[in-house]
Prior knowledge:
Helix content: 10-25%
Shape: globular
Largest sheet: 6 strands, antiparallel
Strand content: 25-35%
Number of strands: 9
Order of helices and strands: EEEHEEEEEHHEH
Radius of gyration: 13 Å
Amino acid sequence: xxxxxxxRYSKEHEWLSAxxxxxxxxxxxxxxxxxxxxxxxxxxxxxxxxxxxxxxxxELESTKSVSDLYSPVxxxxxxxxxxxVDDPSLVNxxxxxxxxxxxxxxxxxxxxxxxxxxxxxxxxx
Length: 125
C-alpha cells in the first residue's frame, strides 16, 4: 500500500490534497478503506456546511461497521462527491482518485497533518 507523497494525512486516516485557490480535497486513506471493508453507504457533508477540524462531519457504513467521518480541516464545504454517494464502493476501489469525499474552502491553515512517510509510520503500513 502506497500513500501518495503529495498528500497530507490526519491521525483519523483522512487525506488532504494540496490547496488550490483556498480549496482542498478530502478523502479517507487506503488503510482506512481496507480496515472498513466494503463501503456500502456514504453520508457526506453538504455544500455550504461548515466543518471543523477533528469533528464529525459524516459517516461511512461498510459490511463490517459504521464509522464516523472526521474533517481534518476547518472551513466551508464547496463540493461533495455525488459519485461516492451513488457508488460508495469507490471509497475502496479508488480512495485517492475517484473516491474523494468532499472539498473545503479552508478557514485556516491545517495543523497537525502528517507527511506520507509520517502517516505510513503512524499507521504501520
